[in-house]
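Dear H.,

Thanks for agreeing to be a second pair of eyes. The structure we're designing against is below in token form, covering all 715 positions.
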């Protein structure tokens, strides 16, 4: 078959109706014949010639296609409007973020605020007495602590800490799911970086605005600092309750140790604590704290931060809060340090370490002895409070007890309470008399005395007649002290006391001899130190050295005192009188075997105050007992309970020490006629009676032999 024949037989498709065939029949036939096979595309049919183009929007034969187009338009519209809505949400969120970002300081000016400085107060042996400052502990670097300590915080607070960029979408989604399921309690989804941002820059309010700002600041922190730097900042700024900011303060507060020494169990308890410091504090709610710590340990083990064996050990031996060191008397010493610190270094700009003179063993011993005595005898004898001041002869404070219980009363009676010293003030009267030419062997008469209507009496209500000054001093005869005060003049007695270290205002009147002018325990102890150190005036001091965190010495004590204020011969005389008190006088029960000891008791009117102050060549100590409301005790003499406390403390403090003599020694008078007795010649002026303002004190004439014998024997 040739090509011409094949072309003749081939029927070309026609798009016009055949003869006798209607248009509708033609369309139907064409539809059946030309319908494409499955998967084939139907050929496009041209519009019939000479026929008007049909409007696709009109009816007739297009119903099925119109429904398909409507279905596709719904899905497309849904997608379109979702896109539009998301776009507007993004714009709104961006505007909201921009608004709250505008409320923050400019990012280029943003800096991490300085941590409030901490003052670490150390004992003389370098052990920590107390922390002072807003944080409660010093800054510590991440390299100083055991590796498992920071890992504990990461495990329980932000397991993806090293993977996210400050905001953790995965953690946030997980927290939302857990919250919906109510699984494991309500979770916030905040990262450690966000928590740090809140602690550094924001308030604790829970608002959307604060969360937005928190996120912005978290991004800034992540861009500015490394992960380890952020974690270190966090460990030093997070709050652990009980006034402790930072992990070092918390470790000291709850475990009495540095964060450098905590165990895995203790690290877990600290990490668990930050979720709710008040509710989970181990000293308040140990059971809840332990359960939370168990969760932390399990999380650390699950994440491979500690071994399973270490986790098991930590779970078997859980951490326990220790009894707080410094809940008692050391805080009185720490408060005194803070009172005087500004005088030496000014304003504290950064963390500092203050090395003090406090001996922790003596501090603990003094507190224990005082508290035990008050617990045993306080109620019976009507004594509510007490104070102990103990210092080295150069003025270095070794123990400072300002009250019975610091947790109940922070008032420091050792440094701030001004009380009448009673007969413990008499040494200054006698010292002034010795400086005016008298000696311990000088005779004065113990007899009634009346000055402008005032008639002081001895405690015994009896009189001994002529006695030596040493005897009068040893037995605390009031009449002799009053008469000596009048001889040297009260103003001279005031000058003598002030020269030795009494800084309180003293009233130059006849009753000064009986200690009616108020002083503090610390200044009375300071004045007595002059008798123990060879006659040198000293200032009480508690700070030996101050260093910055880097180790730079900011202050170091150099001075030792004001030089000699009592002549050697006079010092030997007054010390022999002090020693006689301990041998045969009111302090004989408080003597310390083998030591040269001096002391003096004091009791005020109506038993409102009771004192015992004494010294050796190694230590000077004062004990005061009384009531804060100045109410009377039940016949408490200075030679009673205060002397007992003093003796018990001083004997313990000197245990194991080599006995030492008092500097300058003790005066030993040579036998003399009782008629000269060291007194000036009758009717003359003592060469030492010249006073600073030119006044001279007239010494009454000594009696002649005949008159004296007649008066002595009643002739």
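And this is the sequence the design step returned. I haven't edited it by hand at all.
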């Amino acid at each position: 078959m040739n090509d011409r024949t094949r072309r003749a037989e081939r029927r070309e498709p026609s798009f016009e109706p055949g003869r006798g065939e209607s248009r509708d029949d033609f369309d139907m036939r064409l539809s059946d014949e030309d319908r494409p096979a499955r998967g084939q595309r139907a050929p496009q049919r041209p519009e019939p010639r000479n026929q008007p183009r049909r409007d696709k929007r009109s009816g007739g034969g297009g119903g099925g296609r119109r429904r398909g187009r409507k279905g596709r338009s719904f899905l497309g519209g849904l997608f379109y409007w979702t896109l539009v809505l998301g776009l507007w949400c993004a714009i709104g969120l961006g505007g909201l973020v921009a608004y709250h970002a505008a409320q923050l300081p400019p990012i280029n000016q943003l800096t991490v605020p300085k941590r409030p400085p901490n003052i670490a107060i150390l004992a003389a042996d370098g052990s920590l007495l107390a922390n002072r400052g807003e944080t409660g502990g010093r800054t510590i670097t991440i390299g100083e602590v055991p590796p498992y300590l920071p890992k504990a915080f990461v495990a329980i607070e932000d397991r993806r800490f090293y993977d996210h960029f400050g905001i953790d979408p995965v953690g946030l989604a997980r927290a939302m799911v857990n919250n919906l399921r109510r699984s494991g309690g309500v979770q916030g989804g905040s990262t450690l970086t966000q928590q740090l941002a809140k602690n550094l820059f924001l308030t604790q309010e829970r608002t959307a605005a604060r969360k937005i700002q928190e996120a912005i600041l978290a991004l800034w922190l992540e861009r500015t600092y490394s992960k380890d730097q952020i974690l270190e900042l966090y460990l030093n700024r997070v709050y652990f309750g009980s006034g402790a900011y930072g992990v070092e303060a918390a470790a000291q507060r709850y475990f009495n140790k540095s964060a450098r020494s905590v165990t895995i169990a203790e690290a877990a308890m600290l990490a668990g604590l930050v979720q709710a410091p008040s509710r989970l504090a181990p000293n308040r709610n140990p059971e809840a704290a332990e359960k939370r710590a168990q969760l932390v340990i399990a999380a650390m083990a699950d994440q491979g931060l500690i071994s399973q064996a270490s986790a098991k050990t930590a779970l078997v031996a859980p951490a326990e809060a220790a009894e707080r060191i410094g809940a008692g008397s050391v805080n009185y010493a720490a408060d005194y340090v803070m009172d005087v610190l500004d005088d030496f270094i000014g304003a504290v700009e950064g963390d500092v370490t203050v090395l003090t003179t406090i001996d922790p063993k003596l501090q603990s011993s003094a507190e224990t002895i005082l508290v035990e005595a008050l617990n045993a005898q306080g109620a019976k004898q009507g004594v509510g409070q007490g104070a102990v001041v103990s210092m080295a002869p150069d003025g270095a404070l070794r123990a400072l007890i300002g009250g019975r219980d610091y947790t109940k009363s922070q008032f420091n009676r050792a440094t701030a309470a001004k009380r009448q010293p009673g007969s413990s003030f008499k040494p200054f009267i006698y010292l002034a008399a010795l400086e005016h030419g008298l000696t311990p062997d000088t005779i004065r008469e113990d007899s009634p005395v009346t000055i402008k209507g005032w008639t002081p009496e001895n405690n015994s209500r009896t009189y001994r007649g002529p006695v030596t000054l040493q005897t009068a001093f040893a037995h605390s005869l009031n009449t002799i002290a009053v008469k000596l005060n009048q001889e040297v003049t009260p103003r001279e007695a005031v000058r003598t006391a002030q020269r030795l270290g009494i800084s309180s205002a003293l009233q130059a009147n006849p009753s000064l001899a009986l200690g009616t002018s108020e002083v503090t325990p610390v200044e009375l102890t300071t004045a007595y130190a002059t008798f123990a150190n060879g006659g040198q005036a000293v200032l009480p001091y508690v700070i030996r050295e101050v260093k910055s965190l880097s180790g730079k010495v900011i202050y170091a004590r150099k001075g030792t005192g004001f030089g000699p204020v009592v002549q050697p011969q006079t010092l030997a005389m007054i010390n022999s009188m002090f020693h006689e008190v301990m041998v045969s006088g009111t302090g004989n029960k408080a003597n310390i075997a083998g030591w040269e000891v001096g002391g003096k008791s004091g009791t005020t009117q109506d038993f409102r105050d009771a004192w015992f102050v004494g010294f050796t060549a190694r230590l000077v100590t004062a004990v005061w007992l009384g009531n804060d409301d100045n109410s009377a005790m039940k016949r408490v003499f200075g030679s009673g309970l205060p002397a007992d406390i003093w003796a018990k403390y001083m004997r313990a403090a000197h245990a194991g020490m080599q006995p030492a003599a008092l500097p300058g020694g003790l005066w030993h008078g040579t036998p003399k006629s009782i008629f000269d007795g060291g007194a000036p010649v009758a009717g003359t002026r003592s060469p030492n009676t010249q006073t600073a303002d030119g006044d001279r004190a007239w010494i009454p004439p000594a009696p002649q032999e005949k008159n004296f014998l007649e008066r002595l024997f009643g002739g």
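Two observations from my side: The chain has a mean pLDDT of 83. The CA atoms of residues 39 and 158 lie 56 Å apart.

Warmly,
E.
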